[in-house]
C-alpha cells in the first residue's frame, strides 16, 4: 500500500495522511486521463503530471490544459542543465586564459537555513569548477567587521563575485553592507545601482538578482510566452517580488503587484496569465484564485510541521499546489522548482562577472 501526503490548504500547519489503496489509486488515475503516470512529487504531494523533466514546446498561458492537470516545471532538472553548460564554459575559460572564476560568500550568524544555503552554494561551485571563498562571522559581529570582509574581497583579483547571505542579524544595516559590494562583483544583483538600472528603460544592470532571474529563465526554457501577458507578482520584497515585477515588465508583460495592503488580491490574481508568488505564506493562493490555464511560479519555501517527515517538517510553497495543479497549465513544485534555479543563476552571474572582468567572450 502506497501512501500520499496531501496538504490541507485550509490550514498551513496541519496535514492529512491519505492511504492510497488500489481503489483510490484507480480513482486518481481516472482523473488524470491521458496522463503519463501517477506520481508523488518530491514533497510527497500527489498531482497529475504531464511532463516533469524536459522543457516543453509552447504552453499557452490563455488556455487550460484539456486534461485539467498542470505541467510540472522541473527546476531541478533545468538547474542541472544550466550547471552542465556552466561547467563547459568554466573549463573553456581556464584552458584559454588560465582564469578560474571565484565566488566569495559572507555568512553572519548561526541561522541553520542560511548555513545550509551557503553549504549548497559551495557544493554547486565545486561541481562546476568555480573557486569558492567563505567568511563566517559570529552573530554578534559588528557591521565594521562585515564591511572589512567585503572590502577585502572587493580588492581580491581572484574573486569575481561577492555575496552576503541574507538575512543579516537585526543590529546590522543591510543596505549599508550591500552598498559596499563592488558593483562589478555584485552577483546577487542587490546593489542599488544594479536595481536602479533594472528599473530604467534603456539601461542594463550588470547583474540581475538570482531568484527572479531563475523564475524568468524557467519561463523561457519552457517556451512560455511572457510578452503581452497579464502577470501578477504576489509580494514586493527587494530580493524577489520587486525585481521579478521589473523583469516581467522588461519582457513586455502587463504587471500588477499584490502586497499586504492590496484590497482585492483574489480578484486581481484571477486575471493573471502568469503568477509569481513570493510572499512567504504557506498555501496562501488557493485554486479559486487562479484563472484556468495560468502559469504559476511559486517562490515560497515555507516549512510546515509534519511529524511523518524525517526532519519533522516539510516545505510547501505560497500556492496550494494540489488545488492549483488542477487549474493551472504549468506550475513549479516546492521543493524542486525555483529554489535550485537560485543557485544555478548565482553560478551563471559569477561566470558572467569573470568573463566581463577578463574581457573573455
Ligand atoms: N544573499 C542572498 N541571500 C538570500 C538569497 C539570495 O539569493 N541571496 N535567497 C534566499 C536563500 N537562498 C539562497 O541564498 C536559497 C533558498 C532556497 C534554495 C533551494 O534550493 N531550496 C530547495 C529546498 C531546500 C531544502 O530542502 O531545504 C528547493 O526549493 O527545492 C536555494 C537557495 C534567502 N537569502
Automatic annotation (TrEMBL):
Which pathway does it operate in? One-carbon metabolism; tetrahydrofolate interconversion
Catalyzed reactions per annotation: (6R)-5,10-methenyltetrahydrofolate + H2O = (6R)-10-formyltetrahydrofolate + H(+); (6R)-5,10-methylene-5,6,7,8-tetrahydrofolate + NADP(+) = (6R)-5,10-methenyltetrahydrofolate + NADPH
Q: Which GO terms describe its biological process?
A: photorespiration; tetrahydrofolate interconversion
Gene Ontology cellular component list: cytosol
Please, which domain of life does this record's source organism belong to? Eukaryota
Every copy of the Tetrahydrofolate dehydrogenase/cyclohydrolase catalytic domain together lies at 73-188
Signal sequence coordinates:
none
- Quaternary form? Homodimer.
Name by which UniProt lists this protein: Methenyltetrahydrofolate cyclohydrolase
Organism equals: Arabidopsis arenosa
